[in-house]
Every structure is written in structure tokens, then in C-alpha cells.
Amino acid sequence: MATESNPPVYLPLEGVESEHCALIVDRGLHTLPSLESYRVELNNRRAMISPAKPQALAEAVKTIRDLGYGVTTLKRTFPVLEMSCAACAVSVESILAGLPGVVSASVNFAAATVTVEYLPNHVKTEDLKKAVQSIGYDLHIATDAQQDVSLESLQQERFQALRRKTIWAGVLTLPVVVIGMFFMDIPYANEIMWALSTPVVLWMGRDFFRNAWKQARHRSANMDTLVALSTGVAYIFSVFNTLFPDYWHERGLHGHVYFEAASVVIAFILLGKWLEERAKGNTSSAIKKLMGLQPRAVTLVLDDGNTRVVPVEQVAKGQILLVKPGEKIAVDGIVVSGQSYVDESMLSGEPVPVLISAENEVFAGT
């Protein structure tokens, strides 16, 4: 029986056409100790499972597929925003993998993307987005036609906003450092540093505190937690010493302030994030240029000897393609017949074309 704590999950089955097939799936699910209960519904072409453990769904899908049947799932890749460290990637991957109806989730931190396989009858893209937002990050969801353009503009806007915050943080932090290091004895030094450091910590650095709080709600921590704790404690302690200096004087101590420390930490981390985003942007541009070398369409040789132009996405392993002189090679493969000179400078760096003949390997983009 399903309970409220473990709601049932329905797996759409493919290839289960008879009682015998249903019995095979039933026996396969019976071997999984991670299931509280299960039921194979032949008429509805689905299996109902009640997971007892987080990994139960993935195990059930794998078991059914290993038996030679299929489970209808969607596998999509989404750009992830606001990730700044490997711990961020782990957090995003964990929160998505724990959603009911998600079979698997894998984050590529270098590409700032996450690949999610999920049951479309249980999980919507909006659910994935809300889950990621709940821990301080964001998931960019767009149609295939809009994704490249909207993602590029979104990344550019984020880069410009980060650049503005970095510049303002540097401008406001510099006088705080100068006063804190060399002019501590001028009148109202603490008050001046307080005024200058407040927008740096509470405005330019607000994302650190916001993300740290979201992590704390999920009993987790990342780099934002360290930044928020260090700068927050330094700032609050300095404000207390500025407002109540007598508290320490009565005990024979001097109440030091650390406004410059909090401001410098925020400014330098913002600078690091800005440089990282710029490097990622340059890398993404280079990858897109390489991807642009691949042709969008190819000439497919049919079994009867005729040819047909098809999108490169429809090319399957074992098919024969016709590449005319001067055309780009769309996919990796082996030459069946003919010979020609191929420009492989993108791979070898050599500007001289290479003679390619039958049985030689060729590579996409050359």
C-alpha cells in the first residue's frame, strides 16, 4: 500500500504487450528491496511503484530496461545560473535527483548545465526550476528555438551586472582600506568606514547572504556560507564597536573595527567571479565557433544508389554519406571509396591539406 510519505510513482511502459511480458516485469521489480510496493497494470501499460528509498525509481527504471522493455522518460539539458563552485554543482544535482519522478540528474560544472532524466507524467520543467531556485540557484528554461539566443543574452546581462557590482565594490572599498590602514585617528573614521562599507556588504554582497540562507534551510553549506559568515560577523562586530565603544573601554580594551576586512573580502570575491565569468564566456564563444564548423545538412546515399539531403541530426551509425570536394565533413567516420585532400588544420594545426583515401578515418569539422 502507498503511504502519504511515499506517494506512488507511475512508470509508462513500452513493449509490454502481453501477460507474459507483464509477469517478467513483475518478477524483475520483485527483486528490488528499495520498493515498498509495486503493481504492473497491463491494460494501462504502466507500473505503479511506491519507493522506500531515494534510489528506488532509478533502480526500477534500470531493471525494466535491462529486461528488454522500455520506460517513457524525457532527458533534457538545462543551463544552470549562479553556480560558482563544485559544491554548488553537488547541491543542484542532489536537489534534482531527490525530486519524485526524476530518474537521474547530472551537473556539468564546466558547461554550467544539468542533464535531467524524468517522468513527464510526474514532473514538469517548472518543478525542476522551483527546486533549483529553492537552494539559491536558477534553471534557465526555454524552447529549442529560443534557447541559444535567450541564454546568450541572459549570460551577457549577468556578466554586465557582475561587472558593475565589482567596479562599485572596488571604488567604495579602496577608501575604507586607506582609512583603516593609515588614517584611523582622523575624526569619525569609524563612521566613515561604516558608511562606505555598508553598501558593499549589504548591497553588492547581498547574493552571498541570500544563497547562504537558502543553503541553511536545506541543512547544507557552500562557498557562499563561508563568505556570508566571515563578512557578516566582521561587519556586525564592527558596527557594535562603533556604536558602543565604552563596552570595551570599561574593560580596559580597545574596540577594533574590521569594516575594511569585510569590504575587501566581498570586493575580491566579486572580482574573482567576474574574471571567471569572462573566461567562461570566451570558452563558450570558442566552442560555438567550433560547433559552427559542422554542416547543418548532409547528403545521404540510399540503398538504391540515389542521394537525399537530410539534417545532420538524422544521421545514424552505418549509413553512407556523400562528401563533395570543398564541403565540410559532418560526422566522424571511415572513407568507403574515393579520395580527396582534407583540411585538418583544426586538429593538427598544419595548414597543408592531407590526402585522404579509402579506409582512412575522417573527423567532423574538417
Oligomer: single chain
Helix/strand structural class: alpha+beta
Approximately what portion of the residues adopt beta-strand conformation?
Answer: 15-25%
Distance between the termini: 59 Å
Helicity range: 40-55%
Encode the helix/strand succession as letters. EHEEHEEHEEHEHHHHHHEEEEEHEE
Count helical runs: 11
Please report the total strand number as a whole number: 15
Please state the overall shape, judged from the principal axes of the Cα atoms. Answer: flat
Radius of gyration: 29 Å
How can the largest sheet be summarized?
4 strands, antiparallel
Main sheet: strand order: 2-3-1-4
What is the arithmetic mean of pLDDT? Answer: 82
- Which spans of ≥5 residues are poorly predicted at pLDDT below 50? 144-149
Count of structural domains: 4
Question: How do the strands and helices of this protein lay out in sequence?
Answer:
Layout: E1 9-14, H1 19-30, E2 35-41, E3 46-51, H2 56-66, E4 70-71, E5 74-81, H3 86-97, E6 102-108, E7 113-118, H4 125-133, E8 138-139, H5 144-182, H6 189-204, H7 206-217, H8 223-243, H9 246-249, H10 259-291, E9 297-301, E10 307-311, E11 320-322, E12 333-334, E13 340-342, H11 345-348, E14 354-356, E15 361-362
Antiparallel strand pairs: 1-3, 1-4, 2-3, 5-7, 5-8, 6-7, 9-10, 9-11, 12-15, 13-14
Helix pairs in contact: 5-6, 5-10, 6-8, 6-10, 7-8, 8-10
Key traits:
alpha+beta, Alpha-Beta Plaits, 4 domains, four-stranded antiparallel β-sheet, 47% helix, 18% strand, flat
What do these coordinates show?
The chain starts with 8 loop residues before the first strand and ends with a strand. By secondary structure, the protein is of the alpha+beta class. Mean pLDDT is 82; it is low at 144-149. β2 (35-41) and β3 form a beta hairpin. The protein has 4 domains: 9-71, Alpha-Beta Plaits (2-Layer Sandwich), CATH 3.30.70; 74-139, Alpha-Beta Plaits (2-Layer Sandwich), CATH 3.30.70.100; 151-291; 297-362, Distorted Sandwich (Calcium-transporting ATPase, cytoplasmic transduction domain A). It contains 11 helices and 15 strands.
